Amino acid sequence: MGAYAIKRIGYALLTIFFISIITFTLMNLIPGGPFLSEKNIPPETVKALNVKYGLDKPLPQQYLNYMGKLITGDLGDSLKQKGRSADDIIFTAFPISAKLGGISILVAVILGVFMGSVSALNRGRFWDRLLMVVSTLGIAVPSFVMAAFLMLVFGVKLRWLPTMGLHSVTAFIMPCATLAFYPMSYITRLMRSGMLDALDQDYIRTAKSKGVGKSLLLFKHALRNAVLPVITYLGPMIAYTVTGSFVVETVFNIPGLGREFIQCITARDYPLVMSTTIFLAVLIVLMNLVVDLSYKLIDPRITLQ
Amino acid sequence: MEAFKNPFSLHLNAEDFLPAADEEKQQLIIMRESTTFWKDAWRRLTHNKVAMAAFVVIIIAILFAFVAPSFYPYAYDQQIRGSEFLHPMQYSAKELKAISAGQSVFPHFLGTDMHGRDMVIRLMMGTKISLLVGIIASMLVLLIGTVYGAISGFFGGVVDLVMMRIVDVIYSIPDMLTIILLQVTLKAPLTNLFDAHPSLGWLQAMGVPMVSIFLTFSLLYWTNMARIIRGQIMALKEQEFVTAAHALGASNSRIIIKHLIPNCISVLIVTATLEIPRAIFTEAFLSFLGLGVMNPMASLGSLASDAIGGMESYTYLLVAPAVAISLVILSFNLFGDGLRDAFDPKLKENK
Amino acid sequence: MMKQEHLLDINDLKVSFFTPAGEVKAVNGVTYTMDYGEVLGIVGESGSGKSVSAYTLTGLVDRPGRIVGGSVNFNGHQIEKLPEKEFRKIRGKEVSLIFQDPMTSLNPVFTIGNQLEEMLRLHTSKNRAQRRQRAIELLNLVGVNEPEKRLKQYPHEFSGGMRQRVMIAMALACEPKLLIADEPTTALDVTIQAQIMELMVDLKKKIGMSVMLITHDLGVVSDVCDRIAVMYAGKIVEIGTTDEIFYEPKHCYTNGLLRSIPKINETTHERLIPIEGTPVDLLNPPAGCPFAPRCESCMKICLRQMPEFIQHSETHKSACWLNQKALLEKQEGANGDE
User: Fold this and answer.
1) Do residues C167 and A206 touch, judged by C-beta distance below 8 A?
2) Are residues A27 and B185, on separate chains, in Cβ contact within 8 Å?
3) Of A209, A225, A300, which is closest to C97 when you measure between CB atoms?
4) Chain B residue with Cα closest to C321
5) A277 and A161 housed in the same domain
6) Before C64, cis peptide (omega within 30)?
7) Do B3 and C317 touch (CB under 8 A)?
8) Which of A209, A221, A298 is facing C60, going by the closest CB pair?
């Protein structure tokens, strides 16, 4: 277990390093500095600003400087939002996104597992078909289209739900529904095929031959095996939720990290883009790591060594 | 005893106990129609109603995107003055005047947008771009993934180990984040590159956003394909026909191309087909963030995201591209699923 | 009509699978009985219906298969009419199964102890400690070392032979009246095969249950079984004591099977003769003897008409036109003598 964990952590660190290199290189590929777009700033000021932010130094040194500060927990300052540090921005916005994402993931997993099981047990019958239609739609409709339609119907036409912000409990419904729809559909499909697969296995026949009843057969013997692919999907799902939040937060005007990220990209706010990317990437990589390591708890066949 | 009943009561005669001829025996063996793998897959695919319906939708989309525009009286970037924000089938005052003067004016079936551009032709253009993005990206992924996976799987050992570790790292890089970064940052260098080398004009014709989409796909999305192909090759290379080819003195590249790849072609087709909707999805997402194709070009994603701002008053501008994009992605997904079912021998046993 | 003298009484059982291609008559009129404490071998190649006929009496035949005719009486239960709920009480308690592939027959995500004790949880009122105690006892019984430690392990930590021992322990947990072993050694190494067979014989003596041994390998059953039934294409073609089947086979198919097994003590290097051809299509079973197309001594009548059973002794009967012919000739000879 220990050795495996260390190996996995090593990979995670390597990945994060790659990401930081990629981010840094890409950001520096842009000709001119971040201040170039603002045409009427005199060249001396640009130079002074460049010196102030260390943008005049050679690239490797800039990178090392940046990473050095990063390791000590200093994510740098925003270039555009005067007087705000990147970590200030990130840690104000992140809890909002985390709450939104967390609820969505929970909803997606619970509903997905349930719907997938129902579908598998009713294979070929009405509920299976209905759920398959819903989940097929779920993986075909882009999230912003979904968000727009929800907003149009429930926010604008029916006026049941607030269209902006997260100021009440009901305000969570539409953003979470949008964010959860795709992963929920995906999990439903995974769960359905996992369940059908599990029910077809020899050990189910063994359990039946022991006189195990229907519910125990499903909830103990089949479900535990069928849910394994869903666990594997949790990693990509977290990544999806992070990027999905870009759309959802922009459409529903939620001051989370996703909207912040899109805004700083549009504004070419170097340090903020870099910090946000690395923050999100580390988050995703760490979550993947946790999922990987916890897989052992569910599937004893995975020997972590 | 019952079984000892008089055999004569069965009306048997001696002739019955003569040995039967082989031909007579053969007649009893009902031969099942022998089918090849491809015939079998084709039969199952054509019997799959959902997959066939999806296929029909795909064909219609292709005709709509690539053939119909040449017969259509409007152009995708044609801005008709005075015809801004027309509702479906509505005519502008100017057009009405022309009609009353006896001229024929082609109707705007889906209305017009804020610049007075006809939405039907915009939708055709959008479908075309989205399909192109999907198909080209999927081809790139197919190419890179196959070559990488085949090499890794075929040589095995240290080569495989190193190559697969690289895949692991690329795989765990969050894709959307990287794509967004690439989109943002590649724009300028690509523009510079095109300006400096006019010979790359054909690339420029596609536009910087498209090129960077393809680039990002080729950099990131091939890992899945590479893993699948590697697994297939690893399993296949242990089989006798590969040993036989080796013994006959075939070169490695020949064995890979002539013997191994054809044997995983079904997996290739399925994975590539399912990669198309993923690319269209991603492009739509980028378009929504304002990182997709540039106006006056349009993709289904950019049409839908352009319409979101004014959706309260001009819902029809959103509905058409949103339905179209969902339909296209849906069809490719369903058709891909159908292909997989058709090729999957496991299903054969069940039926 | 029938007294409760047999443990199992199967009468003209018909089981069909309703597939999109049509009705597959997997079991097509099978009749046999089993007595208390008896070991019956059911021999046939894959697709002969040997497993399906056995699974029927545990209610394990799934859609699209179902009983279309006949009756099954097991230990006083009228099986073909039994509702699923009642079946559950019988399964594991009165009849247990061991399957072919011990690698996939145990649930990979639960410990051996959990799966073993589940049987006791379902059918006995033992408490937790008693169940554990019994589980350890059972593992000892089937020859698994260090049972306390092994109970906490998962199936993947066991070898194939050990897993089959666990399967046997599980099957015997509630001391069933009948143990159905479906190709219990097919997936195992030859040396392990012998060990497992030996174990089963040993346990049978200790516990005193009946055993139904289903196999495609006539060699496996010879030492173990009291009686053997040979199945072909959903029908029993010959049934008799082990000696009768081995030394006086009356059906061409049994003959063929016997010729295709190697004999260790034979000094002459006789060639093994495989049975040519493939089994018939059960979608369209032929009117005559199903083995006819592959039979060396096939006669015209064999292709047209199904032969009836001929009783050769109290325990031995077979369905083959050759027997009828022999009978006919004997009678003719008798007639001629007159």
Assistant:
1) yes
2) yes
3) A209
4) B17
5) no
6) yes
7) yes
8) A209
Domain assignment present for residue B333? The answer is yes
| A17 within a domain of the structure (yes/no) | yes
What tens digit of pLDDT does each residue of B321-346 get?
989 999 999 999 999 888 888 886 54
Smallest Cα–Cα separation from B175: which of A244, A111, A164, C114?
Answer: A244
Contact A144 B304 (CB under 8 A): yes
Q: Which residues of A touch C87 (CB under 8 A)?
A: 211
B74 and B84 fall within a common domain = no
Return the number of CB contacts < 8 Å for A and C: 71
How many domains, in total, are found in chain B?
A: 2
Mind listing the pLDDT tens digit for each residue in B84-121?
777 887 778 778 888 888 777 788 878 888 777 888 88
* pLDDT band, residue A34 (cuts 50/70/90): low
Cis peptide before A142 (omega within 30 of 0): no
- DSSP codes of every residue in C150-169: HTTS-GGGS-HHHHHHHHHH
Q: In the structure, what pLDDT confidence band is assigned to residue A263 with cuts at 50, 70 and 90?
A: confident
Quote the number of domains for chain A: 2
Nearest neighbour of A140 by CB, restricted to B169, B289, B329: B329
Residue B34 confidence (pLDDT) above 80: no
* Residues of the domain holding B309: 51-78+119-347
Contact B230, B256 (CB under 8 A): no
Contact with chain B for residue C302, Cβ under 8 A: yes
pLDDT at B3: 43
Which chains pack against A, by 3+ Cβ pairs within 8 A? B, C
Half-sphere exposure of A283 (CA within 13 A, CB side): 22
Asked if pLDDT for residue A283 goes beyond 70, the answer is yes
Q: Taking CB atoms and an 8 Å cutoff, what residues of chain A touch B334?
A: 136
Cross-chain residue pair B181–A277, CB shorter than 8 Å:
yes
Average pLDDT over residues B210-226: 83
With CB atoms and an 8 Å threshold, state whether A285 touches B177: no
Output the pLDDT for position C135: 92
Q: Does the complex come out with an ipTM higher than 0.85? A: no
pLDDT, tens digit (0-9, with 9 covering 90-100), for C138-165: 999 888 889 999 999 998 888 888 898 8
Asked if B250 and B258 touch (Cβ cutoff 8 Å), the reply is yes
Mutant choice from C239, C325, C330, C335 vs B, greatest count of B C-beta within 10 A: C325
Q: Within a 10 A sphere around the Cβ of A73, how many other Cβ atoms?
A: 7
**Encoded amino acid at C147, one letter:** P
- Chain B's closest residue to C324, CA to CA, is B7
B105 burial type by CB count under 10 A (0-12 exposed, 13-18 middle, 19+ buried): middle
Among the listed residues C196, C201, C211, the one whose alpha carbon sits nearest the alpha carbon of residue C102: C196
Helix (H) or strand (E) holding B242: helix B240-247
Could you say which DSSP state residue B258 is in?
I
CATH of residue B263's domain is: 1.10.3720.10
Residue C88: what pLDDT? 84
Residue pair B124/B93 in contact by the 8 Å Cβ criterion: no
Domain-embedded: residue A31: yes
Q: What is C8-337's CATH superfamily?
A: P-loop containing nucleotide triphosphate hydrolases (3.40.50.300)
In whole angstroms, give the CA distance from residue B93 to residue B82. 8
Chain B residue with the nearest C-alpha to that of A266? B184
pLDDT at residue C336 in the model: 56
DSSP string, A106-175: HHHHHHHHHHHHHHHHTTTSHHHHHHHHHHHHHTTS-HHHHHHHHIIIIIIIS--S--SSS-SSGGGHHH
Report A:162-221 residues touching C (Cβ under 8 A).
201-203, 205-213, 220-221
pLDDT number for residue C132: 92
Residue B189 confidence (pLDDT) above 80: no
Read off the pLDDT of each residue in C244-253 and give the average, rounded to a whole number: 88
Whether residue C252 contacts residue C296, with contact meaning beta carbons closer than 8 Å, is answered with yes
